[in-house]
Each structure stands twice: as structure tokens, then as C-alpha cells.
Amino acid sequence: MTTLETGRTVGAGIDRVDAPLKVTGSAHYPNDFSLPGMVHAALVGSTVAAGRIRGIDVSRAEAAPGVLAVITHLTAPALERGPMTLLGGSPPAPMQDDRILHYGQHIAIVVAESAEQARHAARLVHVEYEAAKAVLDVDDPRAEIVENPWGLDTQRGDIAAGFAQADVVVEDTYTTPDNTNNPLGLMATLASWHGDALTVHDSTQWPHNVRTSLATIFKVPESGIRVLAPFVGGGFGAGLRVWSHVILTVMAARQVKRPVKLVLSRPEMFTSVGHRPNSVQQIKVGATRDGDLVAIEHHGMSSVAMEDDDYEPVSFGSVVAYACPNVLTRDRQARLNIPCPGSMRAPAEGQGNFALESAIDDVARAVGMDPLEFRLRNYADEHPLLGLPWSSKALRECYLEGAERFGWSRRTPEPGSMRDGRWLIGYGLAGVSYPFYQVPCQARASVRRDGSAYVRSAATDIGTGTYTVMTQLAAELLGLEVEQVRFDLGDSDMPYAPQAGGSGLTGALSNAVHTACRRLVQEFLDVVADDAASPLRGAMLDDVTVTDGRVHRIEDAAQGESYADILARHGLEELSADGRSTPPQSEDLGMALAGAFGAKFVEVRIDPALGLLRVARVVSAIDGGRILNEKTAASQIIGGTVGGISQAMFEETATDRGTGRIANATFGDYLMPVNADVPDMEVLFVGGPDRATAVGTKGVGEIGLVGLAAAIGNAVHHATGRRIRSLPITIDQLML
Amino acid sequence: MKHTETETRLSGQSPPEVPQVDITLTVNGISHSLQVDTRVTLLDALRDHLGLTGAKKGCDQGACGACTVMVDGRRVVSCLALAAQCQGREITTIEGLSTDGELHPMQAAFARHDAFQCGYCTPGQIISAVCLIEEGRAETEEDIREFMSGNLCRCGAYPNIRAAIRDVKAAVHDVKGES
């Protein structure tokens, strides 16, 4: 239950604590580090998508200037596959045999004195392939189909009976393409061995996973491995796994006995660190003429790699979105000769919501109801599967306050009925119910003789604001000023933290920091428990609070003393305490655990003669539980919205159907929004702290993206009468 | 079915020796003499030879703007400039923007407006934004959007980047108005 009551520093939109480093170029990302004696690596990627390596000639590469080693599957040591993780299996160990499973697969690593020499030598590796016909399409009859890959297929009610009651049924197929995460930071690894000990700078979202995985893969003790990632140049999911290039860099460093740095090239970022897989979705929705949903059936098909896994249940979001008595969801994957997909900001939700929220609009129109009214009519007041009240849900407020701010009431329902000169105007909206996710986390808090605090956990801040919000939270809980608190992260020697992902880190970490800070205050009370000189003698934790660096009795603020005084009188330099959080359980609380909710309102403008589509305005109304920092939380939503606009209108990773080659693997060819493509936007936070945890946050890192594709598609329909069911929405689909 | 990947252009030749050149780069007002492989870009010279890692490598193809630095007062994507071409030119990087520990107004505005998230594109955005105003291209909102479109931000901080630039631009106007 929520216990954090005050809001002195928590919630305030203070500037990021790491802003001075980031604006001066002083924040050090993994590829900014150098070590004495460091050498450089470059990769050789397969130019075919399936088959075998018949021969690989490295003699010219080995003879090239500066080259120290060229390692291939013929010379690589045997490596274990990484362990099972919270996110599923690890990628296969690289370069263990002659098989080619996808284009770009790493088949050699070259180490040289300079990066230029390594890159040049990599081009001299001569490969002969025995190419096979690659399986590249989910419809290819040769593709192995994995049914119900995560055991999440659901059915409630009687789907056939539901459709039999329906007066209106819409049934359509939606497709979404491969998208590539493309964090701006090229992912880099710098590995340095000292005997069996290993230090790694890595562009990871999860240092502990890198540590555990490398210990397994190289059969060395975890205690000797240290993984550092104080700053990461974005991730969007690309840094969640210990990918092949990380393993190969560590392997190369062990062989040449020098520190080795590898920086992926931008084209390699398209084939080495995951991507959002394409999807083909069939969705069927039935409603009565009064506007009551009676049946939803949603089938999702995604692509996955031949010998790897990806969690991508695209239809699962349709289970809990609406109060509908009959719902069936099914997911499948087709195994293809492609680089393995992985999580990309709002995995599965980003694709599934596009189909669901487009179909909901079509149903609303078919029954002659405003799409906002239709969504409110079918609002899920309790969790549709569990039948429990939500731990928090302000989606209704999101709809109503968002509509008010946007001016939804000005919308005239007929498609094509709103114009501004040559521009057709369309209003569209979409609702989002983001799933709850939290996993165990730990943190440690210390207060020193000077009264300042040091709090840490092995988390990462990939731009989300973790440094800042945890500093604010610890300052609040310890009664200190923000300037007196340092929160540190990005080091696997710190207490265990899970990945920055799944919109789950803030909830997990804030509750660990909460526990650590409360226990630290208890430590101070323990020290003075029998101290006749202390006004806190004998006080219990619930009797005291903390203000201005002092612990004092709640009923009498004069009855207390400062951290510094307690430490000095008892001859202590510092006191520390650990805290850990475990995810709340619905059955224990009698509440369904809620993730964030949101309503997205979009105005588009379309030039019908040219097919030009512009997003003119976006209002995002978000129930994110307790907001720890209004400024950084709003940035998360703004950034997610840009990602959503990008998914809707720009991004499509193009795979050549003949060769499996990524045909647009550069920033010149792979479209993403630039400054001129993005409008100013409004973000509203509604609702209050979630009841399931002490701090009451709900993650906001992904919900910003979800719903934009459907809201833009719905707005395009409103402007033109044309329903686009294939992303991205491009000019050729809009020529009228 | 067999497929042979060949490097015909290079096959049979011995790898070429790459000449080294002695150059002097003037960066943030300080002159540095170094010997580099002729293939070394300005970006790699700054980062790997001079330890100035503020400018970032996001694509190495001139498409993202993360490596933007000033060369003789103009914004340049340093991944597309060879170090050897920059001899005798005045180079300013993000590390040279603040003076005596005081943030440049654009740096302060970026912090205030939360005009970044991961921060990786930020040095390039800030250099570009400073030049934008000096170029007289921050007069209108449309200009700011257009002439900042060479700097990608994957975290999507574009609206806040514009707000920071507007803020600095307005302050420049205020100062001019008073004088």
C-alpha cells in the first residue's frame, strides 16, 4: 500500500542531476572509455542469410598492417550458451560452427592496433559460402510455426456465442513491419582481462545480466567480473541481451591479452542487437447496435529467428483493454532466417494496439457512435480476467481530460468534413492499457558524517531520468536536500537491479530505495536506542520523521537530532542499510496490478492532391501513478510519442526478399522523424499514486509510444474516409 | 547451390601501407601536434587521439549530426571530415563551449528545458543550435525546425530542443534591445 505521503522534493520538475555532464560532453558512454594498451576490433558479417561457410581465408587479413588476431569459427574457443534470464533464453554462443542462420551473422572478428586497421583487415577476410534458400517470409510454407510461444493464449466466455449476439462485426487484417531500435549511441564493448577477472564497459540496459552471462559463457567466477554502464546512448530494448558482439569482444580480449574495444557500425546495428519483428494480425470485433462490445478475437503472427527467442505476444493487450465478455487471443511465431528480434520500446503492445484500436474505431462508426463515447461505454472498471478492482485506473479521466484539452467536441463525425484550405483535417484517438511489470530489485543507502547521503543500485539510466528521480526520492525519504544526495548506478558491483525495460525499473527501484532509506533511519534509531544523551532514545520508526537532515519525533519536532550529530557522538563515519523490493501480488492485495493507462488525441492534416500527411497536434493524457519528476516524466511521454509517430509514419526495416540483406541499414535510408517532422505536444498526467506499492509509481517509459499508430490511423480515416491497415502510413497509401 | 563471395578488386594484391601524416589541430584554442593515419577522421582524431570524447559517433556516415563540431565557425559533421583536412582551422567542440566553468547559455537552456534524455546527441545538438543562432537561422519557428533537422534525436526531445533554442534566441534579442 502506498506509504509515501509527502511531496517536498518528489514530483517537482527539477533539472536532471546529470544535466551538467550531458551538456558539456562530460558524460562518458561506453565507447568514450580508453585503456592503456587498448586495441580495436571489427566484425565480419555473413553476406548470405542461410547455408554454410565452405571456406574462410584469413591469410590476407592476418598479414595486414597492425593486425593482431583474426578469429573465426575454425579458431574460436568453445563457448557455453548464456543462461536463462528474466527475459527468456540468451542468444546462442557465436562462431561455434559453420552454419549461417541470418544475414549479418558475425563470422569473424579482427583485432588490430587501430580501428582503421581492424576495419580494413575485416574487408580482406575471404569467405566462400554454400548458400541455402533462406526462409524470409512468415507465409513461407517451409517456416516452422511456434504455437502459443509464451503460454499466454487466452479465452474467456464463448467467442462464437458472442459473435452470434453481435449486430455489427468488423474483421480485418493488419500488418506492421520490422522496426529497428536504432538508439543513437552505437553499441560498444570494451573488455579487459586480468587473469580470470574481467572488466567490461558495455552499452547495456542491464549490467548484472552481462556479468552473469559472461561468467557462464567463459566459465569464470562471477565475483571477478565487473560491468560498467554509467551512461548509455539510448537503448529502447537493444541493450537488454548479451548479444554476439559483446561475447566476441570479450573472447578476443582474452586471446590477444590486451584490452579490446569494439564499436558496432550503424549497418551492424540493424543486424546485431535485435529489432521489433513484423506482425500479421487478424482481428474481429463484434458489438450490439447499442454499442456494447460482445466479442473480440485477435490473432497475432510474428517473426522470430531460427534458434533464438523473443517475447512478443502482440494480441495479449486485447485481453484487458475493454469490458467485453467474450475474448479470444492467439499468438504464433514463424521461424525465419533473420537476425533475432528483441524488445523494442513497447514490444507487442506497440503492434497489437494498432490493430485493436483501429478496429474499435471501425466498430464505433458502424454503430453510429462517437469513438470516445464508445470507449467510455465499454470501459473495464475491473480487471476483465481477474474480476478484481484495479490497484489504480484513471483511464476515464485520461479520456475526459484529454478530450477537453484537445477540443474533441469540435470534431464533426463525417469523414472529410473538416478542412482548412487545401488541408483535410482529421481527429483521431486511441486508448492504452499498458501491462504491469515489476521484478525484484535492491538498493543500498548510506549517510555519512557530513550529513550527506550516497544511494546506489546497479540499474541503468538510458535517458529515462533514473539518476534524477532516485536522487529526489532518497532526498525525500531521508529528509535531505537534493544537493546532499548522490544516487549512483551503472556498475554491477552495486546491489542487484533488473533491466531498464518493460516500464518496470522505476517501480522496482523506487520501492527498493524506499525500503533502504527507511531501514537506514532505523539504523540511526538502533544506534541511539540506549543513548541517554539522545532525544530519540527508545523511539520506534513509526514515531519519527526526517526533516532538514534531522531525525525527530513526529509529535514534537524539537525532540530529535541530526544524522551528523548521532554519527559524531558515536564515533561512526557512516551508517548504511540495504533495501529490496519484491513485486506485489494481485491475490495478496485483492487488487489487479495496474500498469499505466493513457488516451492519445491526434490532429492530422492531409493534402489530398499530394498525399502529404502531417501530424499537427498531439495531446497525451497519462495515468502514470505517482510522478516522481514532472519534467522527466513528460519527456518520457514526449519521446515515446515521437517513437509512436515514427512507427506510424516512418519506420520500416526493408529486408531483400531474395537475399535476406537489410536493404536500408543506414540513417540515410531508414526513415525516422527529424526535428521538422515533430509538432509541439501536450502531456497531461492524471490520477494519483497506485495503491499496490509503497511509492505508488507506474512506469511511463513505453506508454508514450503506444496508441499513436492507431490514433493517427483513426485521424487519417476521419480526414479521408480511408482506413490504412498497414504500417507505416505512407504517401502512396494516401493519394486520393 | 554455391555462392562465392569475392573481393575481386583487392584479391591478389598485398594490403596497401597507409601513409602517416603529421598534423597540427587547433581545438578549443589549444594547438595539438599529432601523427595520424591519413584515413583518420576529424571525429576519430578528437575522440581517440586528443581524448575529447564529447563529440559522438552515431552513424559515421554524416547522417545523424551527433559528431557536429564548429570548424572556422561553421557546423561540420566531423565524421565526414578527415583530420588532415583541418590543419590550420579553428575547431570548437562541446568541451570548449563553456568558459571558466560557466555553462554557455545554450547549454544552460538545454538543461532547463530537458532538451535531451540519453544525452548522446546532445553535444552535436548544442553546437548546431549555437551556430544556428549565429547563422541567423533561428528567426522563425519554421527555420529552427528545418535547420535543426540535421541532428537526429532518437529519444525524441525535439520539442524541448526547440524550446531551449527559442529561449536563448529571445535572450539574445533582449540583450540587443537593451544596448
UniProtKB/TrEMBL annotation, chain A:
Domain Aldehyde oxidase/xanthine dehydrogenase a/b hammerhead: 24-133
Keyword set, alphabetical order: Molybdenum, Oxidoreductase
Domain of life of the native organism: Bacteria
Pfam families in alphabetical order: Ald_Xan_dh_C, MoCoBD_1, MoCoBD_2
Keyword Lyase: no
Name by which UniProt lists this protein: Xanthine dehydrogenase family protein molybdopterin-binding subunit
Organism encoding this protein: Streptomyces viridiviolaceus
From TrEMBL, chain B:
Source organism of this protein record: Streptomyces viridiviolaceus
PROSITE patterns named among the record's database cross-references: 2FE2S_FER_1, 2FE2S_FER_2
Keywords, comma-separated and alphabetical: Iron, Metal-binding, Oxidoreductase
Pfam families attached to this UniProt entry: Fer2, Fer2_2
UniProt name for this protein: (2Fe-2S)-binding protein
2Fe-2S ferredoxin-type domain segment(s): 21-97
Matching PANTHER family: OXIDOREDUCTASE WITH IRON-SULFUR SUBUNIT, OXIDOREDUCTASE, IRON-SULPHUR BINDING SUBUNIT-RELATED-RELATED
InterPro entries in the record: 2Fe-2S-bd, 2Fe-2S-bd_dom_sf, 2Fe-2S_ferredoxin-like_sf, 2Fe-2S_ferredoxin-type, 2Fe2S_fd_BS, Aldehyde_Oxdr_Iron-Sulfur, Beta-grasp_dom_sf
Cross-referenced SUPFAM superfamilies: 2Fe-2S ferredoxin-like, CO dehydrogenase ISP C-domain like
Oxidoreductase keyword on record: yes
